[in-house]
Amino acid sequence: MQRFTEMDETTLARYRDALIAALDALDAEDRLGTDGQKTVTLDQQSVGRLSRMDALQGQAMARATAARREAQRSRIAAAFARMEDGEYGYCTECGEEIAKGRLDFDPAVPTCISCATGG
Q1: Sign of CA dihedral 109, 111, 114, 117
Q2: Separation between Cα atoms, residue 29 and residue 34, nearest integer Å
Q3: Max Cα separation, the chain?
Q4: Rounded CA gap, 102 and 117, in Å?
Q5: Residues 72, 66: Cα–Cα separation, whole Å
Q6: pLDDT tens digits, residue range 13-61?
């Protein structure tokens, strides 16, 4: 069921391009973040106790950041699926149109501002 009443194909293509660019940026971040997730050496001679604690904290932060990127990938994949289904630009909760400004800020956003804030 195609529901594109307000959104023309040019606008939809712009959002699609923005989502592709976001995926590319996530891939670039992944390439940079792999070193931070490596196993921390337990050798107390080469790394002092505080330095090791810093390294473990850095590793945990790198893993949390990787999890955030995976969650964002899932949101982007869901946005592409809504595009294919003709449901992109409509709130997944209430079915109302999502404001253009909200989609401009985050093209993967699934809900209108009212549903996002619990209103």
Answers
A1: negative
A2: 9
A3: 67
A4: 13
A5: 10
A6: 999 999 999 999 999 988 876 655 555 555 555 556 667 788 788 888 8
